[in-house]
Design brief:
The complex is a heterodimer of chains A (270) and B (659).
Chain A lengths: L1 H21 L2 H46 L12 H8 L11 E11 L4 H11 L3 H13 L3 E12 L2 H6 L3 E9 L18 H7 L12 H8 L2 H10 L3 H10 L22
Antiparallel strand pairs in A: 1-2, 2-3
Chain B lengths: L1 H15 L1 H11 L16 H8 L3 H99 L7 H28 L5 H4 L10 H18 L1 H15 L8 E5 L9 E5 L4 H6 L15 H4 L4 E5 L7 E4 L14 E4 L4 E6 L2 H10 L12 E4 L14 H16 L14 E2 L2 H10 L6 E14 L7 E11 L9 E3 L2 E11 L5 E16 L16 H4 L1 E6 L13 E9 L6 H4 L7 E12 L10 E6 L4 H7 L14 H14 L3 H4 L3
Antiparallel strand pairs in B: 1-15, 2-14, 3-6, 4-5, 7-10, 8-13, 9-10, 9-13, 11-12, 12-13, 15-16, 16-17
The chains are: A mainly alpha (270), B alpha+beta (659).
Chain lengths: 270, 659
Amino acid sequence: MLDDTAKKIDAKRLRQLALCRCRGTAMIEAVLVLPLILALLALLFYLGGAMQRHERAAIASRYVAWRAAAKAPGPQPAPTGSNAEIKESFFVGLSGASAAEGSADVDADISSGYPSEPSEAWATAAGSVSFEAESLARAYADRLPSGVTGRVTVQHVATVPLWTQITSGVSVGRHIRLDGDWRFTDHVVNVEHWHDDQARANHNLDLKPAPTQGPVDAVRDTFYPELENALSPLAGGNDLARALDRFYRLYPGYAGPAVEMQWNEALGFY
Amino acid sequence: MMGGEEAKEVQGLSVKRPLQRSRARQECGGDFCLFTQPLSPLVPQPLRRHCRNRGAIMVVTLLALVLLASTVFYVFNVGQHLTQRIETQNAADATAVASAGAIARGFNTVAMNNVEAARLLALVNVLDAVPQAVAYTHEDQQAVLKALDRQLVAGVGPDAYVHEGLVLARDTVSRQVDMLAEVDVALNGSGYDVAAMTHFAAPDGSRGKLWEAIVGLGELSEATLSQLAVGVQSHAHTAARVNQMGDSASGGFALPLLAGDAMAVEQNDFEAFRGPVVDGLLPLEQDDKITNRGPFDVLFGWRIPVFDTTLRDRPVTLTQGFSLDTGVPTPPLTETESRTVTGYATWGTYRYIRGAAMRLGVGEGPSTGQYYPGALTFDPERPLVPSLWRRRIQFISDRKINALFPGTAPANVVRDPEWVTDFDTAAAIAQAGTPSVAYTLYVNFIYERRDVGGVQGTPELEGWGLSRLPGYRSLPPSARQVPYLWKDERIETSEDDQGVQTQAHQFLYAVFVGINVGQEVAVRNPNNFIGSERAALPGPVNFVKDEAPQRGDAALQVLGVAHRPKRAALWARAFDGTRPDADSVAVAQAHVFNNHSWDLWTQMWHAQLQPVEDLDDWARSLDDRPPSGSFPWLIEGDLNRVGDYLKAVAPWAPELLEH
């Protein structure tokens, strides 16, 4: 009887001892691993956001390049437009200054240029016909629009220092496209607006500079720069020499009736 | 009972299974074990099992961490994949527009070469006339300057205000003479001869530079069209590569692989330039008033209405000015307010270029008859206003263009400027009849004075210019104010609602310049071909007649394809597996069109994206591809894989490509 009682007491004591020793371990383990889990989860969200920024940068850069090539209306980067407009148009939600984890800063720009391989292949083919044709092809390629690059950089402004240690937080989207197709642009598409001011000017039959997508300067520089050399010493103060210089470089342009265009107040262009 | 059995079990375990106990200790050991002492053998089995479960959370957590890390990788890879899909589709769009743009650029290049060649053919004749016209105008303006100086010395009589006009005119003419002197030396007296540019056979025996340019333009057109298919693929490949962010395994091409090669083009002979140069029409009767008007009409607007001169609607009165012959106002001319337009005519590059040259000496305002109006002040844009420049350059150019394309312009006589500025000598020459007098020149000043309600106003200079009268024209002695200066006057009276009368007095003053007794001179011909040289010159390039492409033609459709291997950026071994679609492939379709005139003269060819159509046909077009090596940057394996992919997805194309 006494033995039984002793055994019971011993078992109970041991149980209490064991329970006492194991108590709190789960909590401690959880506390230890929780930061890891939270860090991974946060990284998951951060990477998701980063991917979203990257995707939007890709889309925005394409827009910037295509708009510039088409000289179309719409938000455009600084200095002609405003990077804030690009930000508002493509990065809504990512750019909210109230976002707890930070905000995004957008920088967009346009540059001209295109890889040289196609024009080089063209010039080489022209060279197989004649040296003059090759020279002219190179002169065209140098002077006429080649391509346009839209570049959009999204900088994630992190309030959590960890992110700046893991990654720079910068996503870059870049898109390059052929800039136009060398259409005649005298009165059809000029500078940044789709309107017809040039035609109005032409209607007065004034001499005007050669259109931006014409061959005149390339042909002159390739074949006959001599007259320019003869007139240029006079051109500084000689209005007749200047007028003659403009005259012989005059490329056919619009000389028809002025086209009436209506200003579209809502869209902000003709 | 129970306690005894448990103790036995415990005792039994401690004896028979020491390894288990040791494992239990091990499981509870290490850094995470809270048991610093070995468990007593008396600890019952359930408790031991409980202890052995310590660390299970850790295991589960580690597994979860692996899972979470995999998820992170997965999110990253999926994000990366989606971004790449966007980039690949953007690249395909850029590929399509670049390859179609290459066709459009090729056509536009040929078009501007054709127009430029037509411009140069006109310029050859007008530019060659410039040195002679400059020299002659220089002499003309010297005579005018002499007359103005003489008048300033002689005075202006009672109307003192005319002096101000004379000074103003003298300033302008003096400036013109200075400019003309410099340019005259540059073009006629400095050793430089514009003939080196304009003459087919230049004085030094070489080919004229402008003619070299005409040949070069034709050669470039030929080369552009012959390498069009290569150019298309070069553009396509480049656009696909640069837009896939440096993935070295990415690529792209355009379908059909020989895009742009199916156009039926031909090089016309040199005589085909006549239409564009003279008439502003496409050569060889390719002109069509509805569909194929060429650039001169639809792009440049070089057209004038043709009236039915037998029909006159309503006569209107035009105020014409003064008559220097009689000294009395001319009777009003009667013209029609509107006439019936029966059609319209176009003009070519010659008239355009010649007009541009003439405008250097044409002032604002009406230019009727022989009156050459000038501005009040010097206009640097039209530095030879007023002068006889317009007539000089026109007559000389016309003679030259007629040598290239006979019948282009009237055959006017070009006269040497030989001025007799002394009035009495001029009168004597005119009376003697020899040499014959070509024309008489005066400088005109028009003043206006408005007298309102009997209050005399102040005369103000309205304008000044030159008038050239055929033969010898002496003005009536009654109108003469002082030597060399004549005056004429006309009055218009009007009355307003309150009965106040206004008299507008217009005064015309004419200063005698002189008579030109110059004889007809020869005009050199820049179109100095010998034998078959002219026939050997290249003509314009154009589509073969009746075989020009039409809107929607397959030859003007291009499918841009961009592709890149699918690769996981993180943990590629786990995420990348064998899959049937090993590449991300994107397609876009573009077409080429001309919304002005479907020819190789109108530089309005345009490339534009459009919805993808008939993917199956595009895929099958890869089967008939040219031999490998035609486009060195295209890889056969890529073409095969992409072709298989396109064929495989073609049945679902309507759903996949739902735009």
